[in-house]
Amino acid sequence: MCGIIGYCGPRAAKDVLLDGLKRLEYRGYDSAGICVASAGELTIIKRTGKIAQLREIVPENLPGVYGIGHTRWATHGVVNDVNAHPHTNCAGDIAIVHNGIIENFSALKEKLVNEGHVFRSQTDSEVIAHLVSDFYEGDLETAVKETLQLLKGTYGLICIHAKEPGRLVGARNGSPLVLGVGQEEMFLASDVMATLSHTKQVVYLEDGEVVSITNSDYHICDLRDRPVDKKIETISWELENIEKQGHPHFMEKEIFEQPESVLRAMQGRIDQENATARLGGLNMSTTELRDIERIKIVAAGTSFHAGLVAAYLIESVAQIPCTAELASELRYRNPIVERGSLYFAVSQSGETLDTLSAMRELKRKGARVLGICNVVGSSIAREAGAGVYIHSGPEIAVASTKAFTSQLTAFYLFTLLIARMHNMSFEAGRDFIACLEALPGLIQKGFEEQNHIRALAEKYSRYRDFLFLGRGLNYPVALEGALKLKEISYIHAEGYSAAEIKHGPIALINDETPSIFLVPNDSLRGKVISNMKEVKARKGKVIALCVADDAEVRDTADDIIAIPKAGELMYPFLMIVPLQLFAYYTALKLGRDVDQPRNLAKSVTVE
Ligand code: AGP
User: Fold this and answer.
1) N or C end of the chain: which has fewer CB within 10 A?
2) What topology is assigned to 447-592 in CATH?
3) Nearest to 262 by CA among 409, 120, 398
4) Could you confirm whether 536 is annotated as catalytic?
5) What is the position in ligand 1's atom list of the atom closest to the CA of 403?
6) Domain 246-424 is classified in which CATH homologous superfamily?
């Protein structure tokens, strides 16, 4: 997703902007640019490629203490230097950076062109600069507000005027925007990653809000000019949380962080005395929780896979009907919100527009929606108003890993809480807690297979198609394992229910399509072994994830990855980590950009 940044202060703006964009590059991008103002002039430097390449063409002595910057994830217009942001008006004295999609830009552009405006780019964003220019009569904030009245779609934007030194105006609708409050300097950015090295004091803007900043002051109002009183929040993260800490990639760091991140997701939430969980953020009374008749989960990507695991778990353990659905599908199918339903919107970033929009549609229909998010203060977290933060710490790599197991942890705790209000006994609750508390150690033990997994990844990296197969709770894990491989190695991989391959996918089996089976010693083990044998009978190569002493699986598969023994319900945690490593090492072998895979964004804030 695009990243935007703005700065007003005493320092060289170019350095602050370039460093800030560097911290936003995890969002995924294909080009970048900055605009710095000095002596009544705007200097714009932008190009395709990485921040490092942009930095090479920025003059070392570029003057100016206020400016804006952008990393572009192309939505409208090819990836080239002209379409990179910032964009300006005809006179070149107004510039903007924008994250989002202006859905009515074609009509606006046509009108502006007919009025004589000359456009340089193919982007939707450029119309904003020309509109602000049309409305400008000496006050940038007013011109921006009048422009916003015409825009349909989403934006997180920042605007600068050469004739208003030391002032920036920002606005948000559907795409995030945060204000960093410094000492005699102010920042605007898509997220706190860009400002954390300068200040921990932040103000999160809401949709429909406009912010005007100078180096020493700011004010926020709505589109009708009514002042909005916002509190300054303090970020709890430390900068080192977003550094690699000696790892070659953020993804590797985040995979190996999972014993700690799963533990963090549990901390303070286990009630041993009553053999249940404590989730105060739900803001629901015991009676309200007890009366839930059905649960529905909406999410995208990896978060959706976590929701699928949760759906199996909640229904089987708590005996409450539970389903998971793609947010992008639910949003447009006119869903029925039944009384007694509780919804969860699951999102690591808390900014995924598909999930945010689905949540808003559900709330319009009267649904109660809780958020399960990682980023504190994110849009989904704030608009849900209640839910569970997963506390996995900043997840920088585009491919989600630790957030997945932390989301699972949150759902397992919720399942315990709800199940203990219904049919789960005290002893069963204690057993469930014991299994949860054993997880960090078991995940850590699973890393003993690291070198073997790397060897297998390198051995199988030449194949172009994979099937990932699991059943029950591990079926969604097969989907997630396939997603990990395809999104960072660019190898085609499909996740399937192991039983389902008989109904078609087995036609794909040959000696060039390896199948990765998830076959723990659980109640479905025998059936999955049968599925494995069906594949072997057709010369398919099989990699099996199983407990180390499972001789029958060892004899059936071509290769195995041993996982620690655990309670049957806990295998999703122990199965996904080897699959994350398999994908990571495959991508490394193939020389992929592991942390920022092509075409992908960390947070998809467009539809
Ligand atoms: C996962 O590795 C991908 N980066 C992607 O599928 C991601 O899970 C999806 O875009 C949802 O993101 P969210 O959890 O921030 O909402």
Assistant:
1) C
2) Rossmann fold (3.40.50)
3) 409
4) no
5) 14
6) Glucose-6-phosphate isomerase like protein; domain 1 (3.40.50.10490)
